[in-house]
């Protein structure tokens, strides 16, 4: 990390600020989805022929479970690093990444299910296009989350100094839980509108 | 925070006290806030010159719509065949001028420069919360600029749907040449730009909240910092919304979705898109777009507050009122976007609501204007170039703000919308005012940035020509607007009712050309002073804020030893009883016994007792505890 010149107090202050940065960034990301939600509501209210007009595929339930479990495994990884059990940390990190990829695959499968029902992205009922936008943008964030996890894993493998490792994990776990909650928000929002 | 552990002991640091600095890490991929500020400023200035040249090009067209200028063909090629500009290119010029000025110059160039420079300096921090994010913020911005300029080199020309890029014009690539590849590049550029702003904004907010030095509580912060802080919050909440709007627009353009498109026939072809709503885009766009104008003007307000107080040698009038009015503007900025859409078929009741919220903004704005004037009142004014620009800023803010009352009125807006009245309004209140705020900042903090002074005489020359020029350009536009002349029209000679305004257009264009040439004085002054300016002293303006306690030579970490502790607010100018007319923020009250006042101690009884003892011993009036 780029903190070589600072004394202990300033380092602590700078870490606190970095963590705060993450929270602010998440507010920004949430604003993006809030804008899409309001866009969806305004659009869907514009006519009776608008709206999702289908039942969400069961795949979304599976993906929700997978993402929840991945949050749990990441939590275990974080517990492990706090207890300085680094082998366990790497194992759970790996598990989380695999679950993240599984989530990714299930979401793509859900798109496939939609396409099978004749609900395409290019659609004159844009409420249905919105489903793809919501899930797609969330997946883009999942990719970012996976990159964060890979970075944690590489750090644990190297290994970087213990406090840096722990700080990295701390940021990663906040972000990953956020992605989890974001997905639940999207899922509930879509469920309420189906 | 219990989970965070310190990795490096203090002893560990002394071992590698020095950074390995190469040319690349010092000047190009710098993570130092001072260097990043300069990078933002110089990129902003380059963009400003570029955007200004564009405006002069379209002003030439407006003044002499029937005349050929063969020289234009030399530079513009097929866009000005026979020396006369094509209508499509005229629209591109207007669009890119607006985009560059609003986003690249007055958002990134202004906030990016001065937030980066002053937030760590004035708060007493070694650097930003995340120097890496700060560097990325600049480089995203830089690439955004490059992409935008590159759109001039594509076959079909740059985007031409106006800086607001309303669909369907922007969403149908076949509609006009400018909606083709140029529009795609516009969207790419803007996405990069938003990434830059979010990275930067996150950093500014976090630094202000977490990295203040000892004693610097929020109510001791200079108004500049308050302004940057609130600006960053506005940006953080509004820019992501534009991302959503842009993403949907991108899908409509490139994939064939129908978020914004419906029932269109373009060049004889019926488009397949059904059911979309262009109004949806306007809502999403203006939810960013209106806060954006405050992102542009608030930093300028902050900079002028500081400069006016310092150069009036008086405390800023109504410090708390200044802060609360900024907060008020911040909150209100999110609930007024509908006033851009009064004539889109909006429900009149909703229009009424937006009208009321809009007109309420006049209150905090007026508070600020009056406080500036009250600060100047009977001050010991030093008319430095920075001060001239600060006063000019207040002038534009008032004269442009007044027309906001007309435009904010839903009934009057039926007549005035999309006319030159709107152009006049926003060019004065946010364009000229913010540019003047920015120039005021450049003149004032130049010694801090480059360690040298700018030439004062050239500064005055630059000020007067620009000030008079700007009024000559924008003031006549009010009358054109009231007469119903629409904005963005290519040739006034094509419409009999507009023909009489061509002569006014000539006046405006000449004024614009002269004001444009005046900027050469600034550019010369700015760039030559970097090497040849008079060497600056540590505190050339006798100012109170912390940045003037740092050495003139830039060092990594800003202060060579410990960061100074803050004891007082930043506006102790001409305090009665003190031997100089300024007391920097890091001077403790124990060193200024002859000028301390009861409220300085904020109810600290021990301090009051000591002060009273001193007063008795020195025949000074005893203060109440």
What would you say this structure looks like, in words?
The complex is a heterodimer of chains A (194) and B (625). With 194 residues, chain A is mainly α. Chain A has helices at residues 8-44, 59-82, 86-116, 126-157, 162-193. The longest helix of chain A has 37 residues, at 8-44. Chain B has 625 residues and is mainly alpha-helical. Chain B has 19 helices and 2 strands. Chain B is globular. At the A-B interface, helix 1, helix 4 and helix 5 of A face helix 6, helix 7, helix 8 and helix 9 of B. Chain A: It is found in: Cell membrane.
The radius of gyration of chain A is: 19 Å
The CATH architecture designation of the largest domain in chain B is Up-down Bundle
Apparent shape of chain B:
globular
| CATH domain class name of chain A | Mainly Alpha
Q: Which structural category fits the helices and strands of chain A? A: mainly alpha
Helicity of chain B, as a percent range: 55-70%
| Total of domains of chain B | 2
- Could you estimate the helical fraction of the residues of chain A in percent? over 70%
CATH fold node name of chain A: Four Helix Bundle (Hemerythrin (Met), subunit A)
Flag low-confidence runs of chain B: 1-18
Task: Characterize the overall form of chain A.
Answer: elongated
Give the strand tally of chain B: 2
What fraction strand of chain B?
under 5%
Described by its quaternary structure, the protein is: heterodimer
CATH topology of the largest domain in chain B: Cytochrome C Oxidase, Chain A
For the largest beta sheet of chain B, what order do the strands appear in spatially? 1-2
Averaged pLDDT of chain B, please? 92
Q: Give a quick account of the main beta sheet of chain A: strands, pairing sense, barrel closure.
A: none
Compute the number of helices of chain B.
19
């Amino acid at each position: 990390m780029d903190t070589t010149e600072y004394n202990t107090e300033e380092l602590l202050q700078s870490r606190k600020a970095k963590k705060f940065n993450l929270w602010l960034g998440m507010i920004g990301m949430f604003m993006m989805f809030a804008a899409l939600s309001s866009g969806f509501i305004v659009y869907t209210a514009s006519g009776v022929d608008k709206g999702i007009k289908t039942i969400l595929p069961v795949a979304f339930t599976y993906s929700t479970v997978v993402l929840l479990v991945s949050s749990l495994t990441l939590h275990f990884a974080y517990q492990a690093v706090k207890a300085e059990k680094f082998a366990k940390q790497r194992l759970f990190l790996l598990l989380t990444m695999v679950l993240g990829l599984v989530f990714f695959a299930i979401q793509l499968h859900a798109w496939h299910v939609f396409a099978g029902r004749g609900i395409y992205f290019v659609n004159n009922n844009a409420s249905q296009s919105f489903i793809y936008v919501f899930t797609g943008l969330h997946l883009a964030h999942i990719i970012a989350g996976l990159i964060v996890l890979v970075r944690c894993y590489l750090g644990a493998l190297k290994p970087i100094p213990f406090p840096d490792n722990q700080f990295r994990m701390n940021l990663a776990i906040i972000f990953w839980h956020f992605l989890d909650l974001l997905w639940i928000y999207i899922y509930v929002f879509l469920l309420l509108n189906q | 925070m219990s989970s965070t552990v310190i990795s490096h002991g203090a002893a560990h640091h002394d071992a590698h006290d020095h950074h390995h600095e190469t040319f690349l890490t010092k000047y190009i991929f710098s993570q130092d806030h001072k260097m990043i500020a300069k990078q933002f400023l110089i990129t902003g200035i380059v963009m400003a010159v570029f955007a200004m040249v564009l405006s002069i090009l379209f002003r030439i067209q407006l003044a002499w719509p029937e005349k050929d200028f063969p020289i234009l063909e030399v530079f513009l090629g097929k866009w000005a065949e026979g020396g006369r500009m094509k209508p499509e290119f005229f629209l591109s010029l207007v669009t890119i001028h607006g985009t560059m000025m609003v986003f690249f110059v007055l958002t990134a160039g202004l906030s990016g420069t001065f937030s980066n420079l002053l937030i760590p300096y004035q708060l007493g921090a070694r650097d930003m919360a995340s120097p890496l994010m700060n560097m990325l913020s600049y480089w995203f911005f830089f690439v955004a600029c490059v992409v935008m300029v590159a759109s001039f080199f594509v076959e079909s020309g740059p985007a031409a749907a106006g800086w607001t890029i309303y669909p369907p014009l922007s969403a149908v690539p076949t509609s006009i040449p400018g909606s083709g590849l140029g529009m795609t590049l516009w969207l790419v550029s803007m996405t990069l730009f938003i990434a830059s702003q979010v990275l930067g904004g996150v950093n500014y907010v976090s630094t202000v909240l977490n990295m203040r030095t000892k004693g610097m509580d929020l109510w001791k912060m200079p108004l500049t910092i308050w302004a940057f802080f609130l600006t960053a919050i506005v940006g953080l909440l509004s820019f992501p919304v534009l991302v959503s709007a842009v993403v949907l627009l991108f899908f409509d353009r490139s994939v064939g979705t129908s978020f914004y498109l419906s029932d269109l026939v373009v060049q004889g072809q019926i488009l397949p898109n059904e059911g979309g709503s262009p109004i949806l885009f306007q809502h999403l766009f203006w939810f960013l777009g209106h806060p954006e104008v405050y992102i542009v003007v608030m930093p300028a307000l902050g900079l002028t507050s500081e400069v006016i107080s310092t150069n009036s040698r008086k405390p800023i009038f109504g410090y708390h009122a200044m802060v609360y009015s900024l907060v008020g503007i911040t909150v209100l900025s999110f609930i007024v976007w509908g006033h851009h859409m009064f004539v889109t078929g909006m429900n009149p009741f909703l229009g009424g609501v937006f009208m009321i919220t809009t007109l309420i903004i006049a209150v905090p704005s007026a508070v600020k204007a009056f406080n500036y004037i009250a600060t100047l009142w009977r001050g010991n004014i030093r008319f430095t170039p920075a001060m001239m620009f600060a006063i000019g800023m207040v002038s534009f803010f008032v004269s442009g703000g007044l027309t906001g009352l007309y435009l904010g009125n839903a009934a009057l807006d039926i007549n005035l919308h999309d006319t030159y009245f709107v152009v006049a309004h926003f060019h004065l209140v946010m364009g000229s005012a913010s540019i003047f705020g920015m120039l005021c900042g450049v003149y004032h903090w130049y010694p801090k940035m480059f360690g040298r002074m700018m030439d004062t005489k050239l500064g005055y020359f630059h000020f007067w020509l620009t000030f008079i020029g700007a009024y000559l350009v924008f003031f006549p536009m009010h009358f054109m607007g009231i007469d119903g002349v629409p904005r963005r029209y290519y040739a006034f000679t094509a419409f009999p009712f507009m023909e009489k305004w061509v002569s006014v257009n000539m006046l405006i264009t000449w004024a614009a050309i002269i004001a444009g040439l005046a900027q050469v004085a600034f550019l010369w002054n700015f760039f030559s002073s970097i090497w040849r300016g008079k060497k600056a002293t540590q505190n050339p303006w006798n100012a109170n804020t912390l940045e003037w306690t740092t050495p003139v030579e830039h060092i990594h970490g800003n202060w060579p030893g410990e960061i100074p502790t803050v004891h007082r607010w930043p506006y102790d100018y001409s305090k009665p009883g003190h031997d100089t007319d300024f007391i920097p923020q890091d001077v403790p009250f124990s060193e200024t016994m002859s000028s301390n006042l009861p409220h300085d101690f904020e109810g600290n009884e021990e301090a009051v007792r000591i002060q009273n003892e001193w007063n008795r011993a020195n025949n000074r009036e005893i203060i109440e505890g």
